[in-house]
């Protein structure tokens, strides 16, 4: 049961039922209600959106790529993360960004929905050039100095639920 609120429509007071899930732009301006779990339905917001950071890209970054944030003479910039070049992942982008353009960087605790070809239930790790790999690197299969960084679990062929895991230099 959803509590109702009163609103005025054409000079008359009427009961109104707030929405529990969003149908997109058609629900713009409507009052939200908590769902059966006592939470705001995820359809009403973009997961991780409140934590995104606009960061200048120091190179072209493709959609879904994992990025490394770095200090370029006092300016925070984003570049492709990589397990072979000492660039641990700090986040990812859902949309491509050209070099010198602003990239919207999502934190490593959001869902990367811009990937393809994932195996549901598989754990993915940082690869090269912002990509993901499975299985993990180990000291015998990787060059010395490579980064072994767990990124998250594939929940579909296109979604990776990430977490902010620490990394190990092999």
What coarse outline follows from CA principal-axis ratios? elongated
What value does the Rg take, in angstroms? 21 Å
Please report the number of helical segments.
Answer: 0
Average pLDDT taken over every residue: 90
Main pleated-sheet profile: 6 strands, antiparallel
**SSE pattern:** EEEEEEEEEEEEE
Question: Which stretches are poorly predicted, pLDDT < 50 over at least 5 residues?
Answer: none
The percent range for strand residues is: 25-35%
Strands, count: 13
Class derived from helix and strand content = mainly beta
> What share of residues is helical?
under 10%
N-to-C CA distance: 55 Å
List the helices and strands and how they pair.
Layout: E1 5-9, E2 12-16, E3 53-56, E4 66-72, E5 75-80, E6 91-93, E7 102-107, E8 111-112, E9 123-126, E10 132-133, E11 147-154, E12 160-162, E13 167-169
List keywords for this structure.
170 residues; mainly beta; six-stranded antiparallel β-sheet; five-stranded antiparallel β-sheet; 34% strand; elongated
Q: How does this structure look, described?
A:
The chain has 170 residues and is mainly beta. Helix content is 0%, strand content 34%. It has strands at residues 5-9, 12-16, 53-56, 66-72, 75-80, 91-93, 102-107, 111-112, 123-126, 132-133, 147-154, 160-162, 167-169. The strands form 3 sheets. Strands 8, 9, 10, 11, 12 and 13 form a 6-stranded antiparallel beta sheet that branches. It is elongated and about 75 Å long.
């Amino acid at each position: 049961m959803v509590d109702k609120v009163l609103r005025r429509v054409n000079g008359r007071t009427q009961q109104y039922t707030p929405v529990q899930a969003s149908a997109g732009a058609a629900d713009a301006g409507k009052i939200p209600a908590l769902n059966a779990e006592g939470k705001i339905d995820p359809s009403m917001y973009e997961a991780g959106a409140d934590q995104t950071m606009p960061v200048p890209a120091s190179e072209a970054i493709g959609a879904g790529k994992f990025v490394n944030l770095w200090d370029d003479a006092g300016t925070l910039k984003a570049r492709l993360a990589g397990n072979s070049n000492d660039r641990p992942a700090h986040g990812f982008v859902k949309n491509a960004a050209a070099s010198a353009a602003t990239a919207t960087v999502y934190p490593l605790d959001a869902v990367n929905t811009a990937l393809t070809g994932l195996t549901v239930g598989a754990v993915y790790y940082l690869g090269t050039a912002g990509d993901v790999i499975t299985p993990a690197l180990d000291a015998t299969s990787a060059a010395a100095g490579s980064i072994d960084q767990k990124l998250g679990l594939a929940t579909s062929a296109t979604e990776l639920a990430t977490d902010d895991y620490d990394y190990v230099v092999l």
